[in-house]
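#lab-general

N.A. 3:47 PM
ok so I finally got the sequence cleaned up, no stray characters, all 326 residues accounted for. can someone with queue access submit it? mine expired

B.Y. 3:52 PM
send it over

N.A. 3:53 PM
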Amino acid sequence: MTSHGEPLDSVLETVGETPLVSVHAAPDDVPIYAKLESFNPGASVKDRIGQYMLEAMLDRGELDPGGTVVEPTAGNTGIGFAIAAGQLDVEAVFVVPERFSVEKQQLMDALGATVINTPTDDGMQGAIERAHELADELDDAVVPQQFTNPLNVEAHRETTGPEILDALDGDVGAIVAGCGTAGTLMGVTKAVRERVPDVHVVAVEPEGSTFGERFGEDPEEAEYKTEGIGTHDASTNELFDPDLVDDLLSIPDRDVHAEMRRLATEEGHLVGSSAAANSLAAQQVARGIDGGTIDAPHDAVVTVFPDSSERYLSKGVYRSFEEWEG
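B.Y. 4:20 PM
back already:
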């Protein structure tokens, strides 16, 4: 696990350097490793962009100390931004669609942020539009916009990707990660490809998501319960670059639900639904490498477990599939 040998001045100094842990369901000859992002202080991968983006905007003069950050978010990004904002003398306002995790919204409030809900039917696009309206109404307010801001990708290119390379001495055969904003996958891919140009890259989405449109496909759109990844409007996911992706895997909710339970029971991983989707996709990729249908420069497959299942207990993630609320 991550360790620190001396006292630290700020919680921000604990962001990153998360453990890379084996997933036991891998084939014998093709290991799978998951980056456990729940070890961040806000218990998710989004702590990385919260700190990185706010510090960069303050350094560039795009945001002044005492100013306000307004962000549309499903929750984890809000928590990450709220932690950073509280330490960097910035006010925080988050616009969250109603259907998303109550736990996340309570944590944003506890961290001193203002949470504003938008109708579920308006989706994330409705939250984005409302965030910009609010920023226009406030003095010295900015919308970092994780879906379009290159700093999202840069954060993972500068932190997550190099950490993976260091842990595996550069022997990364495949990168497998879910796409919401796509910042994690794009940033990690760019970092790894500097040392492993032919690394195999796989994007993960829930079945019913429409990232396939970016590959010229006509995917069948449907509602899904898996939270934090996927899209119903691929045009809003501007950071997603299909030219960096070798394959796109769509994982059914029912399989995700079963994998959340398996990861907890068999491997001790208390992770959310996006982590379970990543795990299943990584296993599929590892089997492909093992069977020779996927050409990868090294055997190791790397994925990300973005957060903890504790964020979703009120949604019944460990109850029956029918009781799980998306």
